[in-house]
Amino acid sequence: MDSIMIYVPIIMALIGLAFMWAKRAWVLKQDAGDGKMKEISDYIYEGALAFLKAEYRLLTFFVIGASIALAGISYIVPTTHILIVVAFIFGAVFSALAGNMGMKIATKTNVRTTQAARTSLPQALKVSFGGGTVMGLGVAGLAVLGLTGFFIILFHFFMNGTWTSTEDMTIVLETLAGFSLGAESIALFARVGGGIYTKAADVGADLVGKVEAGIPEDDPRNPATIADNVGDNVGDVAGMGADLFGSYVATVLAAMVLGNYVIKDMGGSIDDAFGGIGPILLPMAIAGFGILFSIIGTMLVKIKDNNAKEKEVQGALNLGNWASIALTAISCFVLVKYMLPETMNMEFFGEGLKEISSMRVFYATIVGLFVGGVISSVTEYYTGLGTKPVLAIVQKSSTGAGTNVIAGLATGMISTFPTVLIFAGAIWASYALAGFYGVALAASAMMATTAMQLAIDAFGPISDNAGGIAEMSELPKEVRTRTDILDSVGNTTAATGKGFAIASAALTSLALFAAYVTFTGIDGINIFKAPVLAMLFVGGMIPVVFSALAMNSVGKAAMDMVYEVRRQFKEIPGIMEGTGKPEYGKCVEISTKAALREMMLPGILTIGFPILIAVLPMLIGYDNKLIAEMLGGYMAGVTVSGVLWAVFQNNAGGAWDNAKKSFEAGVMINGEMTYKGSDAHKAAVTGDTVGDPFKDTSGPSMNILIKLTCLIGLVIAPILGGHDVVTVVEEVVAIETVVDEVTSPESKEISIDKTKSADGVVTANVTINTTVDGETKTSTQTFVGTDEEVNAKIEEFKKQ
Amino acid sequence: MDSIMIYVPIIMALIGLAFMWAKRAWVLKQDAGDGKMKEISDYIYEGALAFLKAEYRLLTFFVIGASIALAGISYIVPTTHILIVVAFIFGAVFSALAGNMGMKIATKTNVRTTQAARTSLPQALKVSFGGGTVMGLGVAGLAVLGLTGFFIILFHFFMNGTWTSTEDMTIVLETLAGFSLGAESIALFARVGGGIYTKAADVGADLVGKVEAGIPEDDPRNPATIADNVGDNVGDVAGMGADLFGSYVATVLAAMVLGNYVIKDMGGSIDDAFGGIGPILLPMAIAGFGILFSIIGTMLVKIKDNNAKEKEVQGALNLGNWASIALTAISCFVLVKYMLPETMNMEFFGEGLKEISSMRVFYATIVGLFVGGVISSVTEYYTGLGTKPVLAIVQKSSTGAGTNVIAGLATGMISTFPTVLIFAGAIWASYALAGFYGVALAASAMMATTAMQLAIDAFGPISDNAGGIAEMSELPKEVRTRTDILDSVGNTTAATGKGFAIASAALTSLALFAAYVTFTGIDGINIFKAPVLAMLFVGGMIPVVFSALAMNSVGKAAMDMVYEVRRQFKEIPGIMEGTGKPEYGKCVEISTKAALREMMLPGILTIGFPILIAVLPMLIGYDNKLIAEMLGGYMAGVTVSGVLWAVFQNNAGGAWDNAKKSFEAGVMINGEMTYKGSDAHKAAVTGDTVGDPFKDTSGPSMNILIKLTCLIGLVIAPILGGHDVVTVVEEVVAIETVVDEVTSPESKEISIDKTKSADGVVTANVTINTTVDGETKTSTQTFVGTDEEVNAKIEEFKKQ
């Protein structure tokens, strides 16, 4: 029986998309400015679209290849259904759609923000944040719509829309994992490709423009300046959007998988008002309502004072953010109360079944919301302008680039301390509260406000672009001042957004990890087994090598850019005087090509290694359960190391960036005010150059790496014995209590455990416990034969 | 019964020490040069001793504190004997003794090498390597002497020198772990303190001397130059010596623990010519013979041609190294054949008992020797002069310090790829060959040539010092040219030595990890349990934070040095003209104080965290077995992350160093020969500044961090249930087969499993299997009561 509740998330998603559409119309209706501004903004728009088009063309081949591979798996593995291919393709398409939509609106909003900044700061914030809202709601709406929609379709296809058993639901969810895999695969390339693109353009533009030619940032004479602005959109908007789209879907999916196992632990079915699948629907419902509360949150983001500074703008964003988090917390309480049985049985590893009140699940969601908020604060502490760690880096700049770099590295490294302790605490607490279902719901609650988070995130690069357009169009200084305020806040939100993204990726991966273990049916991952330990090592190494590849890619792509800009400066007459027109398109093309070329190797590494770890041991005849543990060890290694390297790189990069920025307003070093252009500032610029690929390419890519690794594990799981494909197990456990008439008052308990193998042979273990005067005597007998034979023997044995 | 074999390692150790003494006498007999040289060398000698003295004074407090803590543990935990305190103190003293001895000879050899270089290069190599040999043999000799000696004493104390049971031997080895803990604790402070010392002096001397005052390296006018030269000895000689001393002892100990469990798996005792403890003696014997073969290896290190270049010197070192490795391989074959039963039973996790031929143990030792050699080659590839990765960093220097730093970081990160794959392969292969005993013996074989490795290692800083003395004494140019050749080879051996040290630390930690699991009696470490997973995260974070602390310490200490040097330049009249005498002692004191102050926090982190993880959950009432798993997860996290960060930091640092050095001979960048003093060279100097603390402070400290963490775990293990201290378990399993006389031919099997709790209550599970016509019927009954009551009931039940 279908419950109406199953459709609620879809309704929420549609409300979100409708609101998005209205907001989009409003943004597009805003004045897009005059000639020069429009021209530049069109260049950016076209450059961004050109990249997306080239990327999607390439990814089409990938999706086709992966689909064929998945179809092969579904052909070989009986429990993997061919529909997984359809789910995969839709996941990929939805993710691409979300990215496309977000990027289009971002590149339309930038020039409108510039134009709005000509009138007032409040209006500029309204427009830029409006663009961010469109992006956020688009991503969240499509994620919930796609996932819930597909779930309903699969639920009806495999189970006729009625609860039958955990095993059937597992098949539904395994197929649904295809949707998540599709989304995350696109995210990988969007994040890595986008990250390489943006930093290649940025570094290339700076090295020749600022350093060699001595022209300022965003100068229209620099051929790479358009590519640089395109990069902001490609990396920070589309990349971040795809990342959170993937997290969102994967988190909810993992929570659904674990909800399914809660039902199993409760005896295989529950009786509730939601067709017996309340624990499975809950994460979708939380996601759905999260969209609603994000909308309310976005409405609160506004300022009134035209003379407002960074603090007020940041305050407005914080208000909206905390409001949506608080509302989500309330909705979690209501939904948990409403949708979950008052008490549930949950299997705790090594401790057996425990009775858990539904309130503990609510507390777990609070843990998730808390982590999401606190991680952002920790990130802000280590990377924000004027904080102690950043000021320390500024001081170290006075003794040269070397000490600046050391200080930045150390800051990034130290920042793992509170971050990891918070993660570890969250894992421990949410598990202690409600098992791995609790961990998954903590992640779901945290992700519920994704729309709001993304709105805040996307607002940054839009403002950055708006400033660039103001500069390139040579608008009055106050316009740039206003956009600079927005841009500066955007830098902080970019850092905290990265904190949120890695926190979500970490919790998502844990939930996926838990789902993986339950899917494979292994009883844990024992790192005392040498092959498992070896894979833990290998897994730990992957994020490090991945980061190095991404960094090297940026270096190579930036060099390409440098050569092209140098060529244009030399060959185009009048370019430096502003009379010759630079060939912006050439630079955009170089960044595009380099990004697409360079994202292949990290992609292959990410996707290839887990497959290799599953396939190679199979070929040499390892036991499937051992392989499942090995792959689990690999996943754990990637997750632990990936989180560490993400936090390290993001925060080091953010800290260097703001250490450099500190010089703009001037800083006190050894009792002297020091400004831009000083030796200390030059040292800080070096640090920032190192930090650029850290914080915008390799660091954020870690999120996808760990999520995708765990998702691939989840898709491989059925092959490794999610269901026993050789024997069909039919378990009949009958417990009867009879009173033996012959002798004195005795109680007799009979339990029967029947198993039928694939070739029809039935094995039954029958145990009779007879209790006389409080002392129990057990008789056990095993019968093997056809079903009838065994039944007859059991009857005979019972009579004894 | 004692076997003579138990004394063989001691004899080998004494031979090694005797040879060392002779070599030492020979070195000291060499000409120590004239006035100025002697004066400078005396400064270095005194500075080094001053540091050691101050360090040992501080460490005395630590040893007293730790001894009291250990005594407390032995008081509370019945199975931990008070003798562990004695073992701990001796371990600490032996380690300090070895460091002291090595440093003394190194600081005496440096000036003699300078003097020898005035005559010829072969003679200079002979002297400098002679000093290294003294260091190597001293460390290895003391390690084997101390460990074996203590084992014999404890073996006689607890077991009267006769095999009784695995349990008794476990108590012997648990007590012996105190020796290892003592050695490793001293190593921690020696490594970290030495690392901070050497880099504070180096960076401080360079920043003011080279950069500000524009005087060359090792200029006697620089007040920090003596501290710099002292640092080479403190860090590279004493630190490395203590590190390998600790590895050596810990590896052999872990192998002995696992040998004890091999005997258990073989039924609790074996009958061999070695008093039934062949598998326990084997690792000691391999270590003992390793000393002998290291002596032979050192004899092969010589060159004849006075015009030899780096290649010939490196070739001579390689010949000696490979000869000792080859001889060790042969001795492993003979010893394994001789000392182990032809086939053994070993428990393989999840696979049960397996019959393993002793040859497979031999193959495992080959795996260890192979890894030791190959890791050095990999390190050389990523860090050597003229290799592809180093040349790539050189190229990137042309676009500035930022790109140079990025390239260096990426090189260090990428180098984890082959390294980790080799480790993972070694774990997998040696385990597949002979279980965790195989892993431990792989490590033992690798460590057997420690004396040779250390001789090669210590030769580097001795030659570096010799060059410094030549420079400061203004000797003829050809002297410096000769010492430069030795120094350059020394740089390569320093890098490969670090590769060896981390490989040994990794394998040692794995062996300790395996010993820990067997000590605690848990059946594995399941990272699917959330608290265990949380601790895996926390463990992974520790090496990152530790590295950051070490790097920051170097920064702080270097700043102290900078201020002092600046002060002297300003206040001492005539210092720049060479007429005023710098106060070298002040700089030595600053480095000493800073090193001792700054090593506290990383030390507390290393020692405190594992204790916290054991104690905190105890206080909130967690199950001991779960705590044991949590601590195991922490150990695994530290090991995996520590190995990664060690390889990353060591290799990045080494690569930067040699990228900078490449400019001395000139390099081709974009078709132009580029030399010292160019902008590209300046960028490379920045990279080297970043790499200095990486490769000499934080990177090498990782070795100790992971070993000490695992050792602390091992010492805590008995508290967490190595022996069940609450209930004394008495297992009586009697299987009788009787023929029931009453009915038709039936067979009856009776098994009894009796357990006695601490308060004397006996619980017996009795199972009777009756087989009639091939069908088995089982009756089980449980009886509880006093011993007599239960026995009576069993008799009654049997009669039924």
TrEMBL record, chains A, B:
<keyword id="KW-0915">Sodium</keyword>
<feature type="transmembrane region" description="Helical">
    <location>
        <begin position="500"/>
        <end position="519"/>
    </location>
</feature>
<keyword id="KW-0406">Ion transport</keyword>
<comment type="similarity">
    <text>Belongs to the H(+)-translocating pyrophosphatase (TC 3.A.10) family. K(+)-stimulated subfamily.</text>
</comment>
<feature type="transmembrane region" description="Helical">
    <location>
        <begin position="134"/>
        <end position="159"/>
    </location>
</feature>
<keyword id="KW-1278">Translocase</keyword>
<feature type="site" description="Determinant of potassium dependence">
    <location>
        <position position="494"/>
    </location>
</feature>
<feature type="transmembrane region" description="Helical">
    <location>
        <begin position="361"/>
        <end position="385"/>
    </location>
</feature>
<comment type="subunit">
    <text>Homodimer.</text>
</comment>
<protein>
    <recommendedName>
        <fullName>Putative K(+)-stimulated pyrophosphate-energized sodium pump</fullName>
        <ecNumber>7.2.3.1</ecNumber>
    </recommendedName>
</protein>
<feature type="transmembrane region" description="Helical">
    <location>
        <begin position="275"/>
        <end position="301"/>
    </location>
</feature>
<feature type="transmembrane region" description="Helical">
    <location>
        <begin position="599"/>
        <end position="619"/>
    </location>
</feature>
<keyword id="KW-0739">Sodium transport</keyword>
<keyword id="KW-0378">Hydrolase</keyword>
<feature type="transmembrane region" description="Helical">
    <location>
        <begin position="6"/>
        <end position="22"/>
    </location>
</feature>
<comment type="function">
    <text>Sodium pump that utilizes the energy of pyrophosphate hydrolysis as the driving force for Na(+) movement across the membrane.</text>
</comment>
<dbReference type="GO" id="GO:0004427">
    <property type="term" value="F:inorganic diphosphate phosphatase activity"/>
</dbReference>
<dbReference type="InterPro" id="IPR004131">
    <property type="entry name" value="PPase-energised_H-pump"/>
</dbReference>
<feature type="transmembrane region" description="Helical">
    <location>
        <begin position="245"/>
        <end position="263"/>
    </location>
</feature>
<feature type="transmembrane region" description="Helical">
    <location>
        <begin position="631"/>
        <end position="648"/>
    </location>
</feature>
<dbReference type="Pfam" id="PF03030">
    <property type="entry name" value="H_PPase"/>
</dbReference>
<keyword id="KW-0630">Potassium</keyword>
<feature type="transmembrane region" description="Helical">
    <location>
        <begin position="531"/>
        <end position="551"/>
    </location>
</feature>
<keyword id="KW-0472">Membrane</keyword>
<feature type="transmembrane region" description="Helical">
    <location>
        <begin position="321"/>
        <end position="340"/>
    </location>
</feature>
<keyword id="KW-1003">Cell membrane</keyword>
<keyword id="KW-1133">Transmembrane helix</keyword>
<keyword id="KW-0813">Transport</keyword>
<feature type="transmembrane region" description="Helical">
    <location>
        <begin position="58"/>
        <end position="76"/>
    </location>
</feature>
<keyword id="KW-0812">Transmembrane</keyword>
<feature type="transmembrane region" description="Helical">
    <location>
        <begin position="82"/>
        <end position="103"/>
    </location>
</feature>
<keyword id="KW-0460">Magnesium</keyword>
